[in-house]
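Box 3.1 — From sequence to structure: Peroxidase
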Amino acid sequence: MAFKMMYILLVVLVVEINSKAGAILDAHYYDKTCPQAEDIINQAVRNATIYDPKVPARILRMFFHDCFIRGCDASVLLDSTPENKAEKDGPPNVSLAAFYVIDDAKTKLEQSCPKTVSCADTLAIAARDVVVLSGGPHWTVLKGRKDGRTSIANETLNLPAPSSNTSQLIQSFSQRSLSTKDLVALSGGHTLGFSHCSSFEARLRNFSATHDADPSFDPQFAADLKKKCPKPNSDRNAGEFLDSTSSVFDNDYYRRILVGKGVFVSDQSLFADYRTRWIVEAFARDQGLFFKEFADSMVRLGNVGVKESGEVRVNCRVVN
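Predicted structure (token representation):
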């Protein structure tokens, strides 16, 4: 009898802990209400990627920027109104693109399963699918997120900046219950990234009293970047890919950091800091390890700030 009571108490405790942790998401959330949801989203992502190879990088970045502000609630998808400037029009987000991909997926979801699949879940599934389409790992997306009703442009200033050092990044991730390993793994999403000159040109000229370019740069790489980003620069689209295999999800990003070819301060500082250097080296050596840790970290990222109550938007750009 005593053992039975102890078992019941343990079960209650585990359920209570899971509840407090916000463990409301479920891999099978739509199995009965919209079993075709993931197929619909995957097809929309595939179709868009055929016509625009930049879609994977853009969707992955969009998911990260969504989760880091108010949690994974699709607030980044809301349009500004005359009364409110929304997240997508905040300074770090004006370069976000490919919102039409989520719109397309959502339109088809509404035709198939009206008022059922949230925009937040649609974006989370799409982020997984673009990684897989690019040769990266697959993971099971937990579902059941609700859509938020608030989106404020100024809050995007809390996003980690390309100029952030590792201490600042660790603090930012920690505030969202993400570990140092999550930081390094999720930074690997830059394997699909591209940056305009404005995000790194401060490292190229007049960096310090003793160095023109950031000394952590490989000298030849810095010279090449100066040619791509001249002063003055009349090409608004000029910039650099964040690794040398920009359309393939792999561990080249980490291998480049090892040799001083991290484009952002936030990239290269991961190698300079003892807390993260060993993880960068491990991922550079072992792509399989990176894939596993990236998938695990994406699941944890997808749990940030999940809304237990809220709405399922019919149109991802406006509240119901």
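Summary of the box: The mean pLDDT is 91.
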